[in-house]
2-hydroxymuconic semialdehyde dehydrogenase (Bradyrhizobium lablabi), 492 residues
Amino acid sequence: FQANRDRAAPLLAKLKSDGIGHMIGGKTVPSVSGQTFETKSPVDGAVLASVARGTAEDIDRAATAAATAFKSWRDMPAAARKKLLHRVADAIEDNADDIAVLECIDTGQAHRFMAKAAIRAAENFRFFADKCGEARDGLNTPSEEHWNISTRVPIGPVGVITPWNTPFMLSTWKIAPALAAGCTVVHKPAEWSPVTADLLAKLAKQAGLPDGVLNTVHGMGEEAGKALTEHPAIKAIGFVGESATGSAIMAQGAPTLKRVHFELGGKNPVIVFDDADLDRALDAVVFMIYSLNGERCTSSSRLLVQENIAEKFIEKLTARVKALKVGHPLDPATEIGPLIHERHLAKVCSYFDVAKKDGATIAAGGKPHDGPGGGHYVQPTLVTGAHARMRVAQEEVFGPFLTVIPFKDEKDAIEIANGVQYGLTGYVWTGDMGRALRVADALEAGMIWLNSENVRHLPTPFGGMKASGIGRDGGDYSFDFYMETKHVSLAR
Ligand code: NAD
């Protein structure tokens, strides 16, 4: 704990004195308007830094810088681009410990999880660095009279808009493939967590990324974010955030015919059948909602458990939830840190009353938690006695909040699992592989894990159905979004 604090102290002092500017065309600059906003720590409400508050003018400067840099970045030999992106990964790895503590203080996420997040971020860069050039390979499908060659070219400068949950890792997940595809980027990070986005822009510059290839404009969603989605030089928007914001972005981008890629909300089911390895299932159920403060799009926030094992399973689960350690995010023993913002804490806590009004039972938690620093802590919460139509079984709470819904049989489980507007992930626990595959086939979700918690393999497709998203990331799927497919016919 003390070692983490000692590491954080000088970084925070420097952050406070330097403040956070935009990164535009390789330079750290204030907003044209001179406006700023304060970013505060969820741990104790301390002001971490004064941050440049971008407006349409700043977005215009950044989009122009990205457009200017585009041609030479697009035309850079793949081997050179690959080398540069590996250098960004090196820089992230070299600074992983600093990134981890800053992320903890800026977002409230526990260090035990954030220590790995920076490593994952470096992997994102390495994986896509190695794919540089691959996406441009042509495909020849000759006909009688022509050679027909399909190629892919980068779409142009793109906008990347990211949320505040695990912001560093998540930003690299969107930015690395865009850069590998040959696009230049304007990044608008979440206003509640600007610290590590600033660090990423600086590390990328130090690693030698040419000026204008990765630009960062901080600010509010409805101001800087909106301007980015409307800018004519920006050809596509990769967005991660709430479903309602996705709808707004689609409308904002319509006049300039923006291509959009959305990773949105979820209300993901974990389904536990009576023939499952119940000890493993219990571990996974706890991990997938109470890690990362439950502020995780892929969290399994609905537990569907078979009726005949429900009582015993819930009893063990309740004991596990009550034993979770809420505390300071830099304490390695902490499992749940403070939530990102007082507004988000109020939202999560509002569901305690919603659950009670709907007639459900709060079996564990159900109150704010008095944690170190007096920040936005909440007790990990377990709601039982719920049925599928209740609000706590339908709405994304996005906190350490799990709703348990018993089911009778396979058909019942599938119906409940699919009975929400979302369709991001599903988790199935059963000893019967035939059933596992049948249920996976029937679930309306973009990603399904059988007898496993969420483990990412970077070449595989990542994304959601229904209100959980449009498009897929990962491997070559990312290049489908960041590139145009071009067809060339040559007479034989
Ligand atoms: P949010 O939608 O409020 O904000 C996300 C980003 O969009 C922020 O940078 C914000 O400034 C910007 N924004 C807001 N309004 C905008 C507008 N009108 N135009 C342009 N940009 C705008 O989301 P959040 O609260 O920061 O993040 C939590 C949400 O993100 C949850 O719903 C969660 O499920 C979702 N999420 C999804 C995935 C996924 O992969 N599916 C991953 C992480 C988070």
Notes: The radius of gyration is 23 Å. The pocket of nicotinamide-adenine-dinucleotide is lined by residues 161-165, 170, 188, 190-191, 221-222, 225-226, 229, 240-242, 245, 248-249, 252, 263-266, 297, 396, 398, 424, 464, 468-469 (CB under 6 Å). The first helix runs from residue 2 to 18.
